[in-house]
Q: What sequence folds into this?
DNA sequence: TGTACATCAGTGAACGCGCGTTCACTGATGTAC
DNA sequence: TGTACATCAGTGAACGCGCGTTCACTGATGTAC
């Protein structure tokens, strides 16, 4: 009558391994995340890890997916907390959650969105949906705001630029997204804004600034400039 | 009577080594840029490289400085070509040059602005001035536009946010920059905008979009929103 | 409940690999008289 | 212009290191009767 079934122990050790890998990733960068270093930290032999992950690449993939999931969950929680409020408030909350998560998990943010790890290629079928979710979490509130009449985009953003019309239309029909091209386009704009404010803050490129205030101000001004009704 | 003096040959081989390193960097990422790989590509033994660089880190530093220099030169050339034109045109040209250089030299852009290479720390005294130059190339035209009365920032950017006033003042006095806090603040905004549009385009995060058009439209709209006189 | 067997987790040795760097050396290139 | 010497570039062997992964194995954990 074991307290934990074998499968449960297995899963829990898998989590331990990932946690250790994350710790090493944060401390030493991607190169520090070697199987042998993880095994050393766990007081275990390196081959033992193969019971839990078929290869190093699979471990990395698991960390990548966890990263996207963690970021997405944080954004979604922020969004849901503003469920009753104006769409602009929800968006701002989600974007703040993005920033907060990134600064709280810098190594994972870099793993997901930074320079690709040489020699590792993420399996698209697993990794892409996890990445797309983040994007959808920005697009959906935009679309809602448009449909509810809370957002009346000002020129030049009242329509999608001509060069983007075709690619966006293709994207929508290929994936059966129930959203307007305008919402998607604004999603890309939001995504780029977030990236440009977050990654440099993380890497210390904005050093002299009060980066948290900078982020807040920029996002607030950007949302305001979009044309949300007051 | 040698055609090239020894020192000239030395310098030319140094350039060959850097060029090979850049090629490997582009092809295989930072990990592919090993001294042994470079030596192999040059049909030379690895220890021979120590005649030209005291260590691998010095080679990397040289590449980093070259990267900043190349990017800065491209921006400066664009700026000078618009010397007679309106400040907004000069800024737009410089920002376009930034983007063009990044897409033409993706590996170097990542080396400069991407995830730091594990185990390598750039010597600040060499590397920082090269990095700061890029920033100054954005701030200077801003300051000129302000002084010439070509730029009348609209709220909320007619003044620096309160949280940033002190850090920016400190930055200016510590370095004796002959520029206004407003110009520096706009410089950071421009920098962040550029980063957020360039790095994701480079990494394929904006895949479905026409990224060149996206960059152009965003920069144009941003400059317009600043309040340049027509 | 007790025994016999199957499954699983983890070990230790070994594989082949690539790495940065050092060292003593050889041969070529330049310099001084 | 020719010779003697100093300087430099590059070699080949070796150092010690860490890596991912495989393999045959042992001992523990669970299952079936």
A:
């Amino acid at each position: 009558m074991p307290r934990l079934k074998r499968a449960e122990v297995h899963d829990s050790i898998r989590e331990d391994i990932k946690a250790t890998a994350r710790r090493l990733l944060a401390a030493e960068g991607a190169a520090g995340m070697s199987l042998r270093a993880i095994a050393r930290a766990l007081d275990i032999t390196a081959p033992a890890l193969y019971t839990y992950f078929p290869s190093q690449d699979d471990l990395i993939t698991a960390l990548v997916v966890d990263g996207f999931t963690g970021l997405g969950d944080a954004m979604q929680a922020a969004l849901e907390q503003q469920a009753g409020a104006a769409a602009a408030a929800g968006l701002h909350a989600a974007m703040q959650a993005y920033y907060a998560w990134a600064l709280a998990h810098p190594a994972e943010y870099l793993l997901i969105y930074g320079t690709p790890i040489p020699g590792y290629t993420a399996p698209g079928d697993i990794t892409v949906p996890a990445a797309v979710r983040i994007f959808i979490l920005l697009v959906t509130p935009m679309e809602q705001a448009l449909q509810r009449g809370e957002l009346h985009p000002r020129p030049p953003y009242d329509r999608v630029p001509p060069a983007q019309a075709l690619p966006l239309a293709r994207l929508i029909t290929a994936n059966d997204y129930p959203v307007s091209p305008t919402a998607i386009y604004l999603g890309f704009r939001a995504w780029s804004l977030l990236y440009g404010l977050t990654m440099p803050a993380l890497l210390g490129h904005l050093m002299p600034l009060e980066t948290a205030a900078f982020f807040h101000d920029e996002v607030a001004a950007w949302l305001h400039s979009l044309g949300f009704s007051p």
About this structure: Chain A is about 70% helix and 0% strand.
